[in-house]
Amino acid sequence: MSLLPKIKRKNDAPEFGFGNVTNNSGFRILNTDGSANIIRKGEPKFNLINIYHSLVSMNWWRFNLLIIVFYSVLNLFFASLYYIFTPEGIRGMEYTNEFERFMEIFYFSAQSLTTVGYGRLYPSGHLCSALASIEALIGLMGFALATGLLYGRFSRPTAKLLYSKNIIVSPYSHPRFLEKADRALMFRITNERTNQLIEVEAQILFSYNEDLNGKLVRRFQILNLETSKISFLAMTWTIVHPIDENSPLRNLTYEELSKIDTEFMVSIKAIDDTYVQQVYNRSSYKWNDVVFDAKFESTLFTDASGKTGIDLTKLSNYIQINQ
Amino acid sequence: MSLLPKIKRKNDAPEFGFGNVTNNSGFRILNTDGSANIIRKGEPKFNLINIYHSLVSMNWWRFNLLIIVFYSVLNLFFASLYYIFTPEGIRGMEYTNEFERFMEIFYFSAQSLTTVGYGRLYPSGHLCSALASIEALIGLMGFALATGLLYGRFSRPTAKLLYSKNIIVSPYSHPRFLEKADRALMFRITNERTNQLIEVEAQILFSYNEDLNGKLVRRFQILNLETSKISFLAMTWTIVHPIDENSPLRNLTYEELSKIDTEFMVSIKAIDDTYVQQVYNRSSYKWNDVVFDAKFESTLFTDASGKTGIDLTKLSNYIQINQ
Amino acid sequence: MSLLPKIKRKNDAPEFGFGNVTNNSGFRILNTDGSANIIRKGEPKFNLINIYHSLVSMNWWRFNLLIIVFYSVLNLFFASLYYIFTPEGIRGMEYTNEFERFMEIFYFSAQSLTTVGYGRLYPSGHLCSALASIEALIGLMGFALATGLLYGRFSRPTAKLLYSKNIIVSPYSHPRFLEKADRALMFRITNERTNQLIEVEAQILFSYNEDLNGKLVRRFQILNLETSKISFLAMTWTIVHPIDENSPLRNLTYEELSKIDTEFMVSIKAIDDTYVQQVYNRSSYKWNDVVFDAKFESTLFTDASGKTGIDLTKLSNYIQINQ
Amino acid sequence: MSLLPKIKRKNDAPEFGFGNVTNNSGFRILNTDGSANIIRKGEPKFNLINIYHSLVSMNWWRFNLLIIVFYSVLNLFFASLYYIFTPEGIRGMEYTNEFERFMEIFYFSAQSLTTVGYGRLYPSGHLCSALASIEALIGLMGFALATGLLYGRFSRPTAKLLYSKNIIVSPYSHPRFLEKADRALMFRITNERTNQLIEVEAQILFSYNEDLNGKLVRRFQILNLETSKISFLAMTWTIVHPIDENSPLRNLTYEELSKIDTEFMVSIKAIDDTYVQQVYNRSSYKWNDVVFDAKFESTLFTDASGKTGIDLTKLSNYIQINQ
Q1: Any chain D CB within 8 A of the CB of B189?
Q2: Dihedral angle at the C-alpha atoms of D90, D95, D98, D99, nearest 10 degrees?
Q3: What is the DSSP letter of D36?
Q4: Is D117 on the interface with A (CB under 8 A)?
Q5: SS3 at position C265
Q6: Residue A304 — φ and ψ, nearest 5°?
Q7: In this complex, do B103 and D126 lie within 8 Å of one another by their Cβ atoms?
Q8: Is any Cβ of chain B less than 8 angstroms from the Cβ of A224?
């Protein structure tokens, strides 16, 4: 039994690449970070693109730690090779015991890997010289790699958007929708960063279970928006779906949203002014993120000089309305 | 009280992400460099994207100075570490007093950081060798970073457009608008650089205060343009809004523009032929930048051989017209 | 004699850049990796873009091997120069025979090329010092090149799509096509990688020979799709051409597809979420890849916790249907 | 006096950013390499973007020569500083005369700049050590710059298109234009490189002088094309403007094209499959490049195995037709 009005076919499932997933155990389809909450079996284990992706998207503490660990391990590896195969090849060492001897070899290795090559410690003999040549090559290639990764980390355009914690159903009146809609579904976004987002577009995809002769089928439907594109995200933007007579949410209550395992998948598309590139951002609201009969608080304030500002900390604030 | 004709709803505020900012103390909403003149409270203090952005967009003198300062400070920092913890570790020093000794350590530090490692000065002992290994690593990573930043500085497409200082209201006649418009609002742009801008698009957003039952509300409206896209910005381009009967500027005088705190926000979009990338440029004219009854001077000239040229220095020149 | 219904002119040959190729000996026009199977005569022999392209697209084993080979050959080249022209210029060598002497020169060369310059071996005299200066410059430029190539390899967006091995003709019923189509041509794709593909678009181009008064002419025609764009390729996507009354495949059998040397060229366009860039992918199905009266197996499974997953290994699986 | 039919206003001058240039002395407006043939006065003298542009677009011989010159000059500059201010600071020198002394200093400078630092030559004393530190920093920054430039040179997408030398007027018959056009203006292009160009679009802009009451005014008009977009440039593409009754070329002869100083500006837009980026290419045909009553030769051939190929050397070949 479907609680929903007849869906126009053009808004139906196939357009979203989720096929007819039935997710009736209540899992999200889209995680709040915008990734798909779906298991993939049979994927190739080793995948350089994935490795690159995690190296450019991990946080800076982990990245720097990784560089240090990698450098130490590589040093240790070469030091062990010298120690095992050609300890006599390294000249100029000063040591009094075996540990100090290994450490001298380790420092020689570091001086080769970084190509600093002071020369107090130096290689002699075929094996040691050859190993040192290879180590210097690997060192240089490693730093070439690090250069690429550092640039990749900086130059990758990512929109850091802040979303209001909830998606709310508010009383609503708008000249264009006056007779048709008296309530609207809305959430708010703002740019977490100072860089400018322009040509910002939003889409809300309403996803729910439909009972088709006892079998649950997952449905997807785009919700009409009051405004789906703004040219400049300088402040906050409230994305509004007017619940008019054509809205699939027309008569739905909180209980019904829960019953059909509602999920609102939102996607934002914009141009980042720093990198001058298209950026994409997705998130999702589950039925228990919906608040009925509420109104967002204004984030605007005016400072002493009369200049307008916005307070990002108030983005999720709403006021409950007694009807 | 509104001086303006009824605004078509589709051109109303929501599309521009400025919400209903009321800026009645006369501040610009958009700075002439295209950034938003709005205070942001609650932003994260530390933001790598912002740091990257300032590093790639600061001028070259400051960038080079920063590199030198950074190099010196890092050198000094490591020199201090050696001096404090392991001054005996550095061998081969030549000095007669404590200052010279510190300077020798400083130069050893520089030779490690740049990985030049001549070898007259060299590390000995655990602590000193370990510190030197770390310094060489940090040096290499620092130069990897500098490589990325240098590339980022060069490869970032930015349109350097020159705008005429004023936006003027001229007598106007155009076959397409003949019966409807006898005046037009116009400004001129040209490319400051020799690189070619193609597929250039312009938009003028007219922003003003409307008195809504005693409360000032900020309104935004796109102005129709005679031509909103050109395929090649080889010369100058005069962007023209014909003040026809549908124009919100129909009967506005300079005094009225001032009274409603008018601001014209202009945005230009183009493809940069050197980087083959989309570039965006914004600026703004305030009511006191408007000149009535004027006409732009031609920037064209023909040289001795009959070849056509433009004179960029004449871009803002206009001639007052006695009506 | 043409087996096909009259082709609408707007879908005819010129739009695809293949002109009127007649490929009646049964070669593919488009290889399965998306490149054109066409000989090009008169191309410039040496082409840097092609070299760059192969360097960034070859697999990692070959790339690393190439780096090692290049490094060895360059070392050997400079070692030979020193050995021939200025063997006395290199000081600090330790050797007992001519081979060891050459190897010492080789290691000196390696130490110069990598700029490690320990200093046990060092140049003396004009020619040797000058050669060493040039070698160090070439070494640095080589590593600059390697840095660029490594970054190019990582940052090049490529969609690795998996295509079903066959393109099948299935029984079909869809509300939108109910009365018109009872069969459909379909193939399936999925993303081989974990990165996300968004705004995915598909096109099938049907190519065949037409007998025009005894002369075979190659024809090209776009097939209408049930859905030609999805917003998110999270699972698999079955691209479906309903064989309705307007379809050029209306009454074609396997034998007829073979006779007119059919080829289905498919092209996929998407946005890669890791690089935030447009990616393009093409492939092709020849008439002998077509399977009639079959149905794709579902790739969906549900794990113990009720979470949905897809099994990539089942992508090409189909079930034959007895009609 | 105008020889041309009335121009539809929507195709008129403003869209092309050339304003009302009158170029009656017969100069091209657009050079064949796609740059504008227009003098720019008042441009800033020094412009980093222009310098970057020439560094990434100059040919490889010049680029490599520039690197060598730059390296030599920088070496010489530092060598002179050491020689003048602190010749005693460099230790380990071996020389018998003043020239050899300077050369030893020069090699020390090279060893510092490349950070190879063998150590036979080493700095001693404040000034020399400080200078050497600065030189090593500058060396590293220089190679950082070179890395960026090398990457910039490789990663800059450029379409190398071959254009037929002439633009020809051929007899023409096409089902879509049958009754309206019996001649067509056409030129041919092909990709000079092996990389693939997809989604290729063409535009022909017809530019000519109109006599407006004795004053020559430059007019611009887009010509309708039989096909303006192909999805894949695998072979050659003949871009065809059917000279139908709406064509401004309807009754024009070679003499008239000359009289009105005709120029056909062509622009091609495509996606480069190697870099997955939009590329733009422009060229121009002047009236004396037009050939009447000719037909392009086919570039197609079939090899022994029956495989189709194209011969790039035949691109400009045409056959004169006796009417």
Answers
A1: no
A2: -100
A3: B
A4: yes
A5: strand
A6: -50, -40
A7: yes
A8: no
Does the CB of C146 have a partner CB in chain A at under 8 Å?
yes
Q: How far apart are CA C236 and CA C120, in angstroms?
A: 62
Which candidate from A17, A132, A144 shows the least CB-CB separation from C234? A17
Of C115, C119, C147, nearest to B119 by CB-CB distance is C119
Of A44, A50, A122, the CB nearest to C119: A122
CATH number at B312 reads 2.60.40.1400
| Assigned domain for B315 exists | yes
C174 and C308 share one domain: yes
Task: Please enumerate in sequence order all residues whose Cβ is within 8 A of that of C8, keeping only pairs 6 or more positions apart, or say none.
Answer: none
Q: How many domains does chain D have?
A: 2
Say if residue C297 is in the same domain as residue C170.
yes
Residue of B nearest to D27 (CA): B307
Mean pLDDT confidence for B268-295: 84
What does the DSSP assignment read for A19-79? TT---TT---SB-TTS-B--EEES--S--HHHHHHHHHHS-HHHHHHHHHHHHHHHHHHHH
More confident residue, C190 or D47: C190
Residues from chain B contacting residue C117 (CB–CB below 8 Å): 117
> For every one of its 323 residues, what pLDDT tens digit does chain A have, with 9 covering 90 and above?
333 333 333 334 445 555 545 444 566 767 776 666 767 777 666 666 678 778 887 888 999 999 999 999 999 999 999 999 998 999 999 999 999 999 999 999 999 999 999 999 999 989 999 999 999 999 999 999 998 888 888 776 666 788 999 999 998 877 666 567 789 999 999 888 777 787 889 989 898 888 877 777 777 788 999 888 887 787 889 999 999 888 999 889 999 999 998 989 888 888 876 666 777 788 889 999 999 999 999 888 877 877 778 888 899 999 998 75
The backbone torsions φ and ψ at residue B123, rounded to the nearest 5 degrees and listed phi first, read: -85, 150
C271 vs A: CB within 8 A: yes
Residues B192 and B299 reside in one and the same domain: yes
Which one of D35, D122, D147 has the shortest CB-CB distance to B118? D122
A245, A178: one domain: yes
The domain boundary, picked from D139, D155, D171, lies at D155
pLDDT at B274: 65
Question: Which residue type sits at B50?
Answer: N
- CA-nearest residue to B236 within chain D is D17
Q: What is the dihedral of CA C27, C28, C33, C34, to 10 degrees?
A: 130
Considering the domain architecture, whether residues D104 and D223 belong to the same structural domain is answered as no
B245 shares a domain with B206: yes
Q: Which domain holds residue B165?
A: 9-39+158-320
Contact, B239 vs B266, CB < 8 A?
yes
Q: Nearest by CB to A119, which of D115, D119, D147? A: D119
Whether residue A163 sits in one domain with residue A298: yes
Task: For chain C, positions 73-112, list CB contacts with chain A under 8 A.
Answer: 75, 94, 100, 103-104, 107, 110-111
Residue B104 · residue B93 · CB < 8 Å: yes
* Residue C236 in contact with partner chain D when CB distance is under 8 A: no
B22 contacts in A (CB within 8 Å)?
Answer: 308
Containing B224, the helix (H) or strand (E) segment is none
Q: Is residue C277 part of a domain?
A: yes
Per the domain annotation, does C3 fall within a domain? no
Residue after which a domain boundary falls, among D88, D122, D155: D155
Is the reported ipTM for this assembly greater than 0.95? no
Q: Are residues D168 and D274 in the same domain?
A: yes
- Residue D58: give its domain's CATH number: 1.10.287.70
Closest CA to D190 of C36, B178, A86, B180: C36
Residue range D186-212, pLDDT digits in tens: 999 988 877 778 788 998 989 888 887
Query: Cβ of A114 and B118 within 8 Å?
Result: no
- Domain membership flag for residue A8: no
Whether C277 contacts chain B with CB within 8 A: no
Query: Do residues C284 and C166 lie in contact, with contact meaning Cβ atoms separated by under 8 Å?
Result: no
Number of A to B CB contacts under 8 A, please give it. 186
